[in-house]
Design brief:
The protein is of the alpha/beta class. The chain is built from eleven helices and ten strands. It folds into two domains: 20-49 and 194-290, Rossmann fold (3-Layer(aba) Sandwich); 53-190, Rossmann fold (3-Layer(aba) Sandwich). 41% of the residues lie in helices and 16% in strands.
Length: 299
């Protein structure tokens, strides 16, 4: 019989004990953040705001991958796990009878001999290794597009395939071109509104939500679109926690001033920032309680 693994339970002694924290990530990508919050005592509240879909026209990505496979690019630039997945899926669709357009004869995708890869962030890097069989040559210290462009430096004459979302910010494309690169930007996937999850507006109205997490600008924008103006007003009374500066900028633009912006732009960094903020808020209360106890007459 298979081993039954019980679900993670909130740790009542954890630093986020008693907190209800909204997770706005796509449903199929929310497990990591949800489990981290649970392990620290929080009660995660699922409210997916985004989902992902293939491009309306798959031909541009397919044609670009054919050029890549034949040595037509010097660099493949990937800024998200979703882009990596899209490249892998498109490769396999182009070669349905075999292991995939970008695969070696043993079935493992391996692009290291035909192109260098640049990626944003450790999660995207791990996906490149797992799904494409290649270790990115460039990963910036800061996990934003601007840092990747800076890390790549002078790109004069370099042929670049930039595969990203339909709503991706244009800054990376523009900066690569300014650095001299010959950039082909193709849509690898669409970001679309999501549904499902918890009925959040009543909880916000009751004051039953402590924090809302945002892991991208798109989670903010689609949250605002989904939640509606009345519930958005209630959301402003919660702790707004953003994974990094891009999500924070989107939150400000949406009228949700961020309470927390993680200095390390990962799920771990976001959770650590939540813990640090809450402990900072509790410190005066704990000190006050301790002082009151010290002043109590002893018999």
């Amino acid at each position: 019989m298979p081993t039954i693994v019980p679900p993670l339970r909130p740790d009542p002694a954890g630093p986020l004990s008693g907190w209800r924290v909204v997770v706005t990530r796509a449903e199929d990508q929310a497990d990591g953040l949800t489990e981290r919050l649970q392990a620290l005592g929080a009660e995660p509240v699922a409210y997916p705001t985004i989902a992902f879909a293939p491009p309306d026209d798959p031909r541009p990505l397919a044609e670009a991958l054919r050029r890549l496979a034949s040595g037509g690019y010097d660099w493949l630039v990937l800024t998200s796990v979703n882009a990596v997945r899209a490249v892998r899926a498109a490769s396999e669709m182009l070669s349905p009878a075999g292991p995939g357009l970008l695969a070696s004869p043993d079935g493992n995708v391996n692009m290291s001999e035909v192109v260098k890869v640049a990626a944003v962030g450790p999660t995207t890097t791990a996906a490149c290794v797992e799904l494409l069989g290649v270790q990115p040559a460039v990963v910036p210290a800061k996990f934003v597009a601007e840092a990747l462009a800076e890390a790549l430096g002078n790109m004069q004459g370099q042929r670049v395939l930039l595969a990203n979302a339909d709503i991706a910010r244009p800054v990376l494309h523009e900066r690569l071109q300014t650095a001299g690169a010959l950039v082909d930007r193709v849509v690898a996937y669409h970001t679309v509104p999501a549904s499902g999850g918890t009925d959040l507006p009543p909880l916000l109205a009751e004051g039953a939500i402590d924090a809302i997490t945002f892991t991208s600008g798109s989670t903010v924008r689609y949250f605002v679109q989904r939640i509606g103006p009345e519930a958005l007003e209630h959301a402003r009374r919660t702790v707004i926690a953003c994974i990094g500066p891009i999500a924070a900028d989107a939150a400000r633009a949406a009228g949700l001033p961020p309470t927390i912006v993680a200095s390390t732009h990962t799920e771990e960094g976001l959770v650590a920032a939540l813990v640090a903020w809450r402990q900072q808020q509790l410190s005066p209360i704990l000190l006050s309680s301790s002082a009151a106890a010290d002043e109590t007459p002893k018999e």
